[in-house]
Inverse folding.
């Protein structure tokens, strides 16, 4: 195809490609054991908490201790899972979400084709930022914890702690690994800079992976788990 | 130690040392003492003095904070606790001479003619004063080298007075060359209990140094031994830390999470008795209970008090004069003469030295002999004092919880004898035996020690005791293997055999020559350790700082050892393995972890895989047995 005939890919199309690419690169682990293993071991590190003994599999739970919140999940496949939030000791259930691929959603009807247009690479970083915002950092459909009746807690804002309102539980996330990963970020209230550093890290990671046409982003890289000196 | 930039930084109360640690965690608890110290460093006219405080009061951190500002001064630091090659007069003299020599050489002082010649010490084989200084102040790299240094010590013991004269001559030369009075910091005197032979061997060097511009880091009990230093020597005392400062300390440790746990602050501070380390250990234990075990607030406080009391305070009963407790409880002070009167000194010194009593501050001008003091609250709370003030509802709730769950020291009633008198012996027996039933399986141990084992933001020192040795290698391999699922942690195995004619402490020093904070040191104590060997290890507590260590000690042996380790126990938490310790572990889970490490590692044979394969083989073998 000549340059003049090549169709300009719109911003929306580019970002749809980026969204699908990011999910394919990092959020369809097969087998999932090491992805979940690293998730378990790095969860509290991002939150600036002491490490605790933690193993996670496909049907497990973890506790967000400073919120007294137990998060239980069961992953059947990359598109079928359920997840719930309950009080960590009373088992008072706040919220449960089921994702069942036997039924349609608008997103499930969507299918991107093609690769990120090489002639528009200068837009890539902004596209990655925008996609990660919608996917992980600030999902378009979301619920705040206070709306679920979870007791309000406030970290020390003078020391950089964020407000509870900054937790946004995404609605309509059909991939369980994206869901778990976005919780990791959302529950990071320890310091505004910790969130900023994580955002920058992920934008750099996925921009480079797409630019380099990588076939996968390993769990090690996704969670910045070096295997030494973590 | 690397610390978290954001969030929580807990430990068992190790002294701060790095710039990062001071920036994130330092609280100026003692501004008056700090100002005095700064003035002393700056003013050549000021003479020697003693900086005293009880174990865990923050002396070392304060000293480091102040001395950081004087890095360009000609300061001679002599660590009498950790650095002598042996705990004899010759060992202490050699270290002192070596440290003074090092600074003199740096300043360009002429050494020849100081009264000591290189040829006096043929065994050390030093061809220059620089080599001599290096050899006498460095840790030996092998036992043979240690033996040669001990030969030098023997010569120095015989000629200790001559060595001190030479030290004096070098200090005079240094003063003339730099036009400043040389500053000497004698660290670690606080680790020496005044009643021990090692302290006796140290005394003449202390008296010598007291005539120079020396700062002595001492325990509170040494403040009452001024004749060992210099009559009339100035004393600075670090007492109990105020509530506001302790709140700041806890807040800094918890970072932005402080508000989440602040409802525990007042009780943690009350039970700390104003002692920084006790407060930090209580916070650490409380946080663990709340987060890993999901205990509620009341249970977490009671269990934290129990854990800290057990680790820091458990001593064989009958070693303390219990009359002192009754008097201090009544009067809220201790007469200074109790610590010097031959009839009461041993018991009173032991009670202060072991932190059973906390001396809160210096006597006021109106009552110059009365030192404000309290019974350590972890002990005090255990006793149902009949005349006690009413408890707060929260204290009552915690006490009730502890009593309902047979947890001590909180919740014990003081038994009375037939004459309705306080039966202290029974009380000590109850305290001593209160933890007998607490044993953990291997997963329980892993949870308890995980915070230190799984990251580089803290290094903890753990003692694991056991009844029968049978499968310790598999236990060690499991813990090290699981740590390697979090990060790359090689393990160095050290066996220290005690007993007459053996050198276990020297062996440890040699093995720790290249200290690696990313390594797990697994240390097994075997043989029949002698009392001097146990005390020597106790004095060298600080060489274990900032290292991740697992120590393995048979439980009956540990009971004997602990009474010699008032310092060492401050750095350790103690756990006991139950006999059925593999409950809850499946071979499938071990295999998953092996696969995980294989996938994560770039090495062909990662250490974690090797360790966990050993565990798998052990479990298969055990399963095959009837």
């Amino acid at each position: 195809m000549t340059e003049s005939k090549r169709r300009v890919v719109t911003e929306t199309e580019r970002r749809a490609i980026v969204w699908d690419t990011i999910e394919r690169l990092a959020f369809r682990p097969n087998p999932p054991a090491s992805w979940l293993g690293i998730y378990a071991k790095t969860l509290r590190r991002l939150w600036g908490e002491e490490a605790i003994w933690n193993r996670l599999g496909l049907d497990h739970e973890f506790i967000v201790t400073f919120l007294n919140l137990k998060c239980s999940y069961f992953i059947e496949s990359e598109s079928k899972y359920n997840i719930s939030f309950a009080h960590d000791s009373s088992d008072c259930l706040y919220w449960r979400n089921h994702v069942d691929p036997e039924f349609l959603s608008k997103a499930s009807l969507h299918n991107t084709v093609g690769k990120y247009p090489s002639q528009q690479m200068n837009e890539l970083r902004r596209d990655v930022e925008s996609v990660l915002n919608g996917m992980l950092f600030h999902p378009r459909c979301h619920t705040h914890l206070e709306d679920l009746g979870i007791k309000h807690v406030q970290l020390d804002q003078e020391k950089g702690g964020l407000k509870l309102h900054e937790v946004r539980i995404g609605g309509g996330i059909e991939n369980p690994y994206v869901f778990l990963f976005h919780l990791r970020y959302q529950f990071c209230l320890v310091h505004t800079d910790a969130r900023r550093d994580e955002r920058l890290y992920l934008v750099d990671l996925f921009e480079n992976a797409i630019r380099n046409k990588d076939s996968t982003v390993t769990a090690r890289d996704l969670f910045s788990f070096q295997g030494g000196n973590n | 130690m690397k610390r978290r930039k954001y969030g929580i930084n807990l430990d068992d109360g190790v002294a701060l040392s790095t710039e990062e640690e001071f920036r994130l965690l330092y609280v100026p608890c003692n501004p008056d003492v700090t100002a005095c110290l700064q003035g002393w460093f700056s003013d050549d006219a000021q003479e020697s003095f003693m900086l005293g405080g009880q174990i865990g009061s923050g002396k070392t951190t304060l000293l480091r904070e102040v001395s950081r500002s004087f890095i360009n001064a000609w300061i001679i630091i002599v660590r009498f606790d950790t650095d002598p090659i042996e705990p004899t007069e010759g060992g202490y003299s050699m270290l002192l001479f070596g440290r003074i020599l090092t600074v003199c050489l740096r300043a360009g002082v002429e050494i020849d003619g100081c009264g000591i010649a290189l040829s006096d010490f043929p065994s050390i084989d030093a061809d220059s004063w620089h080599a001599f200084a290096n050899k006498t102040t460095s840790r030996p790299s092998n036992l043979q080298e240690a033996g040669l240094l001990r030969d030098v010590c023997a010569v120095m013991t015989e000629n200790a007075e001559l060595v001190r004269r030479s030290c004096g001559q070098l200090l005079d030369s240094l003063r003339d060359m730099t036009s400043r009075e040389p500053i000497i910091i004698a660290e670690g005197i606080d680790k020496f209990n005044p009643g021990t032979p090692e302290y006796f061997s140290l005394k003449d060097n202390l008296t010598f140094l007291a005539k120079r511009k020396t700062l002595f880091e001492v325990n509170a009990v040494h403040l009452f031994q001024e004749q060992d230093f210099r009559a009339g020597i100035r004393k600075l005392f670090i007492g109990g830390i105020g509530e506001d400062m302790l709140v700041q300390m806890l807040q800094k440790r918890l970072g932005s999470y402080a508000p989440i746990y602040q409802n525990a602050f007042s009780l943690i501070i009350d039970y700390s008795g104003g002692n920084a380390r006790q407060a930090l250990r209580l916070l650490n234990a409380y946080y663990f209970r709340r987060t890993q075990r999901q205990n509620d607030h009341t249970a977490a406080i009671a269990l934290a008090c129990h854990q800290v009391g057990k680790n820091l305070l458990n001593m064989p009963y009958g070693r303390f004069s219990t009359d002192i407790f009754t008097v201090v409880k009544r009067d809220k002070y201790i007469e200074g003469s109790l610590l010097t009167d031959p009839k009461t000194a041993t018991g009173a010194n032991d009670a202060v030295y072991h932190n059973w009593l906390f001396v809160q501050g210096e006597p006021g001008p109106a009552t110059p002999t009365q030192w404000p003091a309290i019974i350590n609250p972890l002990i005090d709370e255990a006793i149902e004092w009949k005349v006690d003030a009413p408890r707060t509802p929260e204290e009552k709730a915690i006490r009730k919880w502890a009593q309902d769950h047979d947890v001590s020291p909180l919740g014990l009633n003081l038994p009375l004898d037939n004459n309705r008198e306080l039966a202290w012996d029974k009380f000590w027996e109850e305290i001593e035996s209160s933890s007998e039933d607490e044993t953990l399986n291997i997963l329980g141990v892993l949870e308890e020690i995980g915070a230190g084992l799984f990251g580089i933001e803290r290094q903890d020192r753990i003692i694991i005791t056991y009844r029968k040795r049978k499968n310790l290698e598999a236990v060690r391999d499991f813990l090290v293997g699981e740590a390697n699922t979090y990060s790359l942690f090689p393990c160095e195995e050290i066996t220290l055999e005690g007993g007459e004619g053996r050198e276990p402490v020297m062996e440890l020093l040699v093995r720790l020559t290249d200290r690696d904070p990313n390594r797990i040191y697994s240390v097994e104590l075997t043989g029949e350790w002698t009392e001097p060997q146990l005390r020597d290890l106790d004095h060298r507590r600080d060489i274990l700082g900032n290292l991740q260590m697992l120590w393995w000690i048979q439980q009956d042996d540990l009971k004997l050892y602990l009474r010699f380790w008032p310092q060492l126990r401050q750095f350790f938490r103690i756990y006991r393995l139950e006999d059925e310790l593999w409950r809850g572990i499946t071979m499938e889970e071990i295999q998953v972890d092996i696969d995980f490490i294989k996938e994560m590692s770039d090495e062909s044979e990662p250490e974690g895989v090797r360790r966990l394969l050993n565990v798998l083989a052990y479990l298969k073998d055990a399963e095959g047995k009837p």
Q: What stands out?
A: The radius of gyration of chain A is 18 Å.
